[in-house]
Amino acid sequence: MQKPKIRTMEKLSSEIGVSRPTLSRFFQDPTSVRTSTRARIENALQTVDYVPNFFATKMNRKSSGLIGVIVPHLNDLFFSGLIEAIETSALAADYMVITQNSHNDPALEAQAARNMIAMGADGVIMAPIGDASSIDALSRLKQERPMVFVDSRLQDHFQDVDFIGTDNQQSIGLIVDYLCRSGEPPAFLAMPNLNSNNLEREQAYTSRMHELGHEPMVIPRSTNGETLGFEEYAYRLMDAYFSHGNLVDQTILCANDRLAIGVIRAANRHSLFGTAGKDPSRFRVAGHDDYPLSAFVFPSLTTVTQNTQAIAEAATGQLLRHIRREDRIEDAVSLTFDAELRLRDSA
Amino acid sequence: MQKPKIRTMEKLSSEIGVSRPTLSRFFQDPTSVRTSTRARIENALQTVDYVPNFFATKMNRKSSGLIGVIVPHLNDLFFSGLIEAIETSALAADYMVITQNSHNDPALEAQAARNMIAMGADGVIMAPIGDASSIDALSRLKQERPMVFVDSRLQDHFQDVDFIGTDNQQSIGLIVDYLCRSGEPPAFLAMPNLNSNNLEREQAYTSRMHELGHEPMVIPRSTNGETLGFEEYAYRLMDAYFSHGNLVDQTILCANDRLAIGVIRAANRHSLFGTAGKDPSRFRVAGHDDYPLSAFVFPSLTTVTQNTQAIAEAATGQLLRHIRREDRIEDAVSLTFDAELRLRDSA
DNA sequence: TCTAATATTTTACGCGTGTTAAGAATGGGA
DNA sequence: TCCCATTCTTAACACGCGTAAAATATTAGA
């Protein structure tokens, strides 16, 4: 059960009786050696413990076979789902994924970008923190490696970087239309932090409301919510409103489902969805993203989908295309996926 | 804005006018060089783009400064929270974290274990898949690197590996006691997959029920739920029961909160929590873990906490202790954290 | 059996940095 | 000014494997 451990390819080659370069080729592609030799090597590997040194294999090579993924944080099922889907796609193309978490800290994000350069990642898929991101570090990364933004994108210096995400104009338009034709026009609850999604969604809401002849109403941000989870932020904010009897007959469209989940909790606390013997108010909530748990809250959340799977696959595909051909002359691609309505019980 | 790019330490040294070994020492510890030289180097680095090659730095070194984390999947806020907390702890100790996702696939888990050896990780924190895990690959890892299990542990060959997690005996006892004294004794809903937590919690439930003089009742597993999310699995299973009028007056204790969230949805669908003009049934649900969203479902979920933060910190600390001193003679540690009741509205 | 094609081995160098030892330079204090 | 302790430079080797070119062995085909 305790197989002898071989630490270098050199020793392994003398052990098996095959030259080291042959072993090297075997590990890169077993079919590149004669079948009889392959059998000999594979047999020997059964009786011995050997793992090629990861760093040494990447040293003197043009391609590292690594794809980097940088996300602003992990405590969000959208990002964890995105990573899983990227990993699956990348694995299918024989790439290994290295994930770095920014922890919402621009300094860590910059460090992550440096790590990607240092590890010779063939390309990087990045969901940036937002307007706090380090322009310097990311510009550096951009000009050293093929790169693709997902979920949210950066302005100004990054217009030449591909983007894969949701068409907020379309998705917000869809849900605003629905809410307006099925009841009162909605107010809008934005995220506490700033990124392109938040801005785009708020703008999409405002312009769509104007088009429909309604006056938009954006609920003022709370100033001290940066550190809270979205649910908690929305819960506290709305609980304060409801406690004063404000917004209790409103329809509220949230910039994402996690906010909506917090709003629903606050609404339940104030019995806005009705209780036995009391008339239900006209309160409604809708979200955006189709967060995995949105179907499980009560009332289940009406929202628009965000196709994580498709975004991840498209991002990986687009990045691999960049990696394979060297020409970066073409214009930046902006690939957005249309959302679909998920009508449930909250609106 | 476009700084010249230096690709090797060699060129950087001739650029600055400092020898390469001095630079090498500077990058490992800036205080190890004279203040005047440090200033010179730091100044030069402002005007130049240079990032040390990650692989080369790790090549000829005893310690890689890397800590590996292997999780069975990412689509779970418990694991994503665990990873974030481990990253924070490790960062504070100047370690970099490499995360590998098993995707619930024993082959991928085995590959992840090999990768940790290949990358010379100083130690590995592992949340195993469960009884499907590859004994071979993990034994190999265990005897090559310091290792710590979190969340769930493996049996038989891994009794000598430290474990950090929740004391299921205590936590399940706590919630069973509460449920029994506040209403009907609970039935138990287990997870569809097999790991030590699942087994321990079921056993803890059974034995505690016996101690209290009640007959335990474990709801039979559904056979085809391995691929579903916990929520969906529980929802479908319980929806089937409720549709036939079964278990509608029960109290159900779930092996984890995600199951409970699915149960709550099914119960809502069948109005088991009461509706206007109808008597509420005596249906109750409780969970285990205090999943981040458990407070936001309706009715909010009564559960017992699992201290992710503490588990992560203890695991990192324990691993670092192993890494620092070489003696592995001592007995394996089993560090479990007590749970606390979180009484909310579902039971 | 012989030749050509293919596969493998030998040999040698390269990747970028860690690390060591010996000698040279520097700085501070007496 | 001189001496000693630091700090630095120089030179060299190490890490484990990729890679290329030339030499050699093997195999297939006639």
Tags for this model:
homodimer; 347 residues; alpha/beta; 434 Repressor (Amino-terminal Domain); Rossmann fold; 3 domains; six-stranded parallel β-sheet; four-stranded parallel β-sheet; DNA-binding
Explained architecture:
The structure is a homodimer of 347-residue chains. The mean pLDDT of chain A is 91. In chain A, the strands form four sheets. A six-stranded parallel sheet of chain A has the order 4-3-5-6-7-13. Chain A starts with a strand and ends in a 5-residue tail after the last strand. Chain A is elongated and about 80 Å long. Helix content of chain A is 43%, strand content 14%. Chain A is α/β, with parallel strands linked by helices and 347 residues long. Chain A has three domains: 5-59, 434 Repressor (Amino-terminal Domain); 66-165 and 309-337, Response regulator (Rossmann fold); 168-304, Response regulator (Rossmann fold, 3-Layer(aba) Sandwich), CATH 3.40.50. In chain A, strand 10, helix 11 (257-269) and strand 11 form a beta-alpha-beta unit. Chains A and B meet through helix 4, helix 5, strand 4, helix 6 and helix 7 of A and helix 4, helix 5, strand 4, helix 6 and helix 7 of B. The structure holds a DNA duplex (30 and 30 nucleotides).
